[in-house]
Specification:
The protein is α/β, with parallel strands linked by helices and about 250 residues long. It has 8 helices and 17 strands. Strands 2-1-3-6-7 form a 5-stranded parallel β-sheet, with helices on both faces. A 5-stranded antiparallel β-sheet has the order 12-11-10-14-13, with no helix packed on it. A hairpin with a 2-residue loop joins strand 10 and strand 11. Helix 4 runs antiparallel to helix 6. The longest helix has 14 residues.
Length: about 250
């Protein structure tokens, strides 16, 4: 296994490298230390690694610039000193994060997590997390949804939503009372404003809330059915998209 460390502080990179060399969770053949955005872009343009550790702020720029200039297809464990909001974003979109200053036990825990879920890693997640951190306004979570009901406007709280469903060009919000309302948005767009811990887009028709999942039935490795504790649209069976099955399992495991 090859690992890259993107860190411009010598003491920090040396500390991280020494722990990696002594641990017995992963078998590591090579560790490359990169000290700048420029050096990282050049390295990742020519080399592939199995895991990368990446500080957010570097001497010549920010980590986001690396993702913009080259492709990083491996899982990334971010090293950060950001606040709790930013950390919540990391939890949902990345393999893991290390909050400076971190202990050896925290690093080993991150390695165990990587070992467990590396085969289902989504290469777009690292970029999503960085974009969310660098652009906090765009990552604000929507907690209320305004809908029309006759001559009235109703504001639905996030806690009342059971799932979203798409029928043709229309999007509907379903709530705990059993009512549903037409909502002026699309499934693809609304998922980006929802709390990623609470909601998951299981296929092109449904976004479900964590709390309404009654059972997950595995018919095969490529066919997984979701049974809700509320009626679904037209009581149809709901199957998780094949490409989302591993991501869904990881989401449930959070």
């Amino acid at each position: 296994m090859r690992i890259a460390i993107v860190e411009d502080e010598y003491l920090a990179s040396s500390y991280l490298k020494s722990i990696l060399e002594q641990q017995d969770i992963l078998s590591i053949a090579e560790i490359s230390v990169l000290k700048s955005v420029k050096e990282a872009v050049d390295f990742f343009s020519k080399n592939k690694v199995d895991l990368a550790f990446m500080d957010i702020h570097l001497g010549d720029g920010k980590s986001l610039e690396i993702f913009e200039k080259t492709i990083i297809a491996c899982p990334v464990i971010f090293i950060t000193a950001y606040d709790s909001y930013a950390i919540s974003v990391f939890k949902h979109f990345t393999i893991d994060y290390l909050l400076k200053p971190f202990e050896e036990s925290e690093l080993l825990e991150a390695l165990l997590k990587f070992k467990k879920i590396k085969n289902s890693f989504n290469s777009t997640s690292s970029l999503q997390s960085l974009v969310a951190i660098e652009n906090p306004e765009s990552s604000k979570i929507q907690r209320h949804f305004l809908v029309n009901h006759g001559y009235k406007l109703i504001s639905i709280n996030e806690s009342e939503v059971t799932y979203f469903s798409a029928t043709g060009k229309h999007l509907f919000i379903h709530i705990k009372s059993g009512n549903s309302y037409l909502y002026n948005n699309t499934l693809t767009e609304i998922i980006n404003s929802l709390d990623p811990f609470q909601f998951f887009k299981i296929n092109r028709k449904y976004i479900v809330h964590r709390n309404i999942i009654k059972e997950v039935v595995k018919h095969s490795n490529q066919k997984v059915e979701l049974i809700l504790n509320v009626p679904s649209v037209e009581n149809d069976a709901i199957f998780i998209s094949k490409k989302e099955i591993n991501n869904f399992k990881n989401w449930l495991n959070q």
